[in-house]
Amino acid sequence: MLRKIVALKRVLYDAFGHFDADDGWAMASHLAITALMALFPFLIFATTLASFLGAQAFADTAVHLVFDTWPEQIAKPIAREVLNVLTVQRTDLLTYGVLLAAFFASNGIEALRTSLNRAYRVSETRGIIYRRVQSIAFVLIATAGFLVISVLLVFAPLLARLAEANFEWVKPYMGTITLWRYIIASIVIVGGLFAVHYWLPAGKRRFVSIIPGIIFTLIAWLIGSTIFAAYLDRFSSYVTTYAGLASIMVAVVFLYMVSAIFILGGELNAAISRYLEARARVG
User: Fold this and answer.
1) Which tens digit of pLDDT belongs to each residue from 19-32?
2) What positions belong to coiled-coil segments (predicted)?
3) Secondary structure (3-state) at 206
4) 41 and 105 in contact (C-beta within 8 Å)?
5) CA-CA distance, 171 to 146, in Å (whole number)?
6) Is the pLDDT of residue 16 over 70?
7) Which value, to the nearest 10 degrees, does the dihedral of the CA atoms of residues 36, 39, 44, 50 take?
8) How close are the terminal C-alpha atoms of the chain, in Å?
9) Sign of CA dihedral 165, 167, 168, 170
């Protein structure tokens, strides 16, 4: 038992120490701002592509998938503005504007890559063209995934009624469409975390080795979001301090917290790997 406590202490000291020493707080700020700047271009590009393919209900679905897991005080005003932007009719799928939106959306992926490279303590050896193509591929895959989910959610009520009519045992498990949105959004987050930890950083990692950091990230996000939402409910002075900019400032602070936790997840994986390698050498 004592040995486990000592091991945990060493791993945490290594993870938090490296996070602080290697500009983790500054990287969290960079990641938060870049993510906010990439969010609108990604949703504009994805919605335009979906409209071109005939998926008119995509905008509402995409907004729910992105913002359903955010605290309501943060998500509601931003989601409303995002919907206002996305519901503007666009026919410029192949024009420079939408292609640039895809490029700017990929900047968010590049910020994730840079943060994870630092967290995992690896040097990037892949070419800039390969990295940018991979980032745009991530954007296209995310768009395709959101598109498939939006189509499924359109048919979800029909499929639910068919299932209930033919299979009695599924009735207790059939919730509202809102419940399914939460479930799907959670699955998207978990799948996205595995994808970025496994493929974005340089080098190779075993699938099992990235699980501790992802579990830490999910738990810390849940706790942090709950505390931040409670703070906004009771003690927040953002509205009086920032007036019309309150919503965007709250989003920036929230994304900063989320980004710091995300980077710490990578730091934790790296610290555990270093500890296990050190034990193996001693052994």
Assistant:
1) 999 889 999 999 99
2) none
3) coil
4) yes
5) 27
6) yes
7) -170
8) 19
9) negative
- Residue 14 pLDDT > 90: yes
Report yes or no: 267 and 28 within 8 Å, Cβ to Cβ. no
pLDDT at 75: 77
Burial 32-60 (b: 16+ CB within 10 A, else e): bebbbebbbbbbbbbbbbbbeeebeebbb
Return d(Cα 59, Cα 261) in angstroms, integer. Answer: 28
Distances (CA, A) of 55 to 6, 51, 59, 120, 274: 54, 5, 9, 39, 47
Per-residue pLDDT tens over the stretch 112-132: 999 999 999 999 999 999 999
Percent of the chain's residues with pLDDT above 70 = 75
- 96 pLDDT more than 70: no
Q: What is the pTM of this model?
A: 0.85
Helical H runs in the chain?
Answer: 2-21, 24-52, 58-67, 72-86, 96-120, 128-166, 177-199, 211-234, 238-242, 246-282
Domain ranges of the chain: 2-282
Residue range 165-175, pLDDT digits in tens: 676 665 665 55
One-letter-per-residue 3-state SS of 102-132: HHHHHHHHHHHHHHHHHHHCCCCCCCHHHHH
CA distance 269 to 120: 7
